[in-house]
Amino acid sequence: MAEYKSDIEIARAAKKKPIMEIGQKLGIPSEHLLPYGHDKAKISAEFIKEQRSKPDGRLILVTAINPTPAGEGKTTTTVGLGDGLNRIGKKAITCIREASLGPNFGVKGGAAGGGYAQVVPMEDMNLHFTGDFHAITTAHNLLSALIDNHIYWGNELNIDTRRVVWRRVMDMNDRALRSIVASLGGVANGYPREAGFDITVASEVMAILCLANDLEDLKKRLGDIIVAYRRDKSPVYARDLKADGAMAVLLKDAMQPNLVQTLENNPAFVHGGPFANIAHGCNSVVATTTALKLADYVVTEAGFGADLGAEKFFDIKCRKAGLKPAAAVIVATVRAMKMNGGVKKEDLGQENVEAVKKGCANLGRHIENVKQFGVPAVVAINHFVSDTDAEIQAMKDFVAGQGAEAILCKHWAKGSEGIEELARKIVEIAEGGSSQFSPLYPDEMPLFEKITTIVQRIYRGSEAIADKSVRDQLHQWEAAGYGNLPVCMAKTQYSFSTDPNLRGAPTGHVVPVREVRLSAGAGFIVAICGEIMTMPGLPKVPSSEKIFLNGEGQIEGLF
Which of 17-26, 111-120, 263-272, 366-375 has the lowest mean pLDDT? Predict the structure, then answer.
């Protein structure tokens, strides 16, 4: 068997072009690119504003089946398809999210694609990049500090310290900080109260950065954040603490999309990074809408499986930004089908056509779900060397029976050459104009009914259940004028249910909603389902144990 290089070895050998050259390809003058070294740059707000009157290209969403330990390769396929479209003569830009340090040092190890379908500089993207996440963390925690400071200096706004809803954040997995008591140590340190940390990617500030149209919109949304309630349950906003101005200043540069390149020197925008299991899971509206002005095709991804990322992309991002996707790609692998069919990870190398057929139920559900939004879907079979012809054919036959087409893609090993067929198919679908996109539910539907609609139509559960306190909270928000907001479901990514071990295509399960949070600035209600945590923990053996600097000062272990 041929010896394959690791992702990081491939990335290290990349022949990168100066980032100004990549910008020139898109018609971005050098004075509108703020360089961070030689291989990454931010695009100025002025240039973005100047593009607004231009016509839009076509938007392609890449989504996937529920993730398995076998790996699916959604980002790899997103990057590969962008390169593939450029290869066949279309001007295409790839738009992906920035990587969170938490999972990089926890279980994941990186999020820049893989093989010969990667975005570079890979090490920078998976570490501090251009500092956007640090800016988001700092802006969020400035607001946290201002709340406790306001209470300390007399609490003029009459904040009920039992009803402070704004937590703190950090970009790391740290279960010890989920629930804490703050301000211990006597009078000088303020009034003790319960508090806690979420991971930065779950911050409402992250969501706001990803959904705001420009700096002015950003500042308004930051001011709309509800941080606490008074004893009469009236809300206290970030603007009441005069926090929005300083927060916007901290986020000024972070609002500008980052331009980098693929291994084939095609442009990629990498901006924003909300998780799709606990947040809305899409890259920024600014990056996507700007890319649509500069290219014929924009390929973007939404996190995790289509039950989470794609649903939120359609129901939150597209609804709020007025986007109309032309087509969707659902990424799947033979290996993942076998796992869904009951095969253990260590046995995936052996041919098992029956397990593939059994596991295809999960893929079938995602095809049906994407079609519910009126968006035509095609399946990308991300190829692994262990796949057999019979297993691949079984997947193709299943997908054909679902009224869609599955195309074998070898971009991991061959780059754009290995994904040409999918690129041509996407052009055929997009230029055929068959997309009839519409969100799953109307704005005016009551909030709990929106949750129930997603549970029944996307997860195929029997119902959503919630305590009276949760339902009462939703009714209060409806009475306060927030009933027209979409809902952002926080749920395990591994299953259609709230049980991460329930693979395949379960039906009839109950989805418990244990908590709801109002993100008034971002413009959605978060419904926290099952056991999902907004601050992850590290596994028994974290990825960080394998990350180090080698003798030449190069980073090893990011894959």
Answer: 111-120
Q: Which residue numbers are catalytic?
A: 74, 76, 97, 108, 276, 304, 384, 412
The pLDDT, as a whole number, for residue 103 is 82
> What domains appear along the chain, each with residue ranges and CATH number?
7-130+254-432 (3.40.50.300), 134-248 (3.30.1510.10), 447-529 (3.10.410.10)
- Dihedral of alpha carbons 422, 425, 427, 429, sign: negative
Cβ atoms of 416 and 87 within 8 Å: the answer is: yes
Looking at residue 1, what is its pLDDT? Answer: 39
Answer whether the bond into residue 121 is a cis peptide, omega within 30°.
yes
- Residue 25, pLDDT score: 93
Whose CA is closest to 25, among 80, 86, 66?
86
> Measured between alpha carbons, how far is 164 from 222 in angstroms, rounded to an integer?
17
Compute the Cα dihedral for 473, 475, 479, 482 and give only its sign: positive
pLDDT classification of 108: cutoffs 50, 70, 90: low
Helix (H, G, I), strand (E, B) or coil at 319: helix
Name 335's Cβ contacts closer than 8 Å, sequence gap at least 6: 68, 70, 71, 348, 384, 386, 387
Q: At what angle do helices 204-211 and 215-224 cross, to 10 degrees?
A: 150
Can you tell me the distance from the alpha carbon of 240 to that of 24, in angstroms, rounded to the nearest whole number? 44
- Report the chain's mean pLDDT, rounded to a whole number: 94
pLDDT one-digit tens code per residue, 190-199: 999 999 999 9
Element spanning 78, H or E: helix 74-87
15: how many CB neighbours lie within 10 A of its CB? Answer: 8
Whether pLDDT at 559 is above 80: no
335 Cα distance to chain centroid: 23
Alpha carbon distance 148, 203 (integer Å): 18
Give the residue ranges of the annotated binding site: 68-75
Q: How confident is the model at residue 526 (pLDDT cuts 50, 70, 90)?
A: very high
Angle of CA points 511, 513, 516, to nearest 5°:
150
Question: DSSP string spanning 35-61?
Answer: ESSSS-EEEPHHHHHHTTTSPP-EEEE
Within a 13 Å sphere around the CA of 459, how many CA atoms are in the beta-carbon half?
Answer: 31
CA of 504: how far to CAs of 301, 490, 507, in Å? 22, 20, 10
Q: Which residues are annotated as a binding site for ATP?
A: 68-75
Q: For 410-486, where are the E strands, in sequence order?
A: 463-466
pLDDT over 70, % of the chain? 98
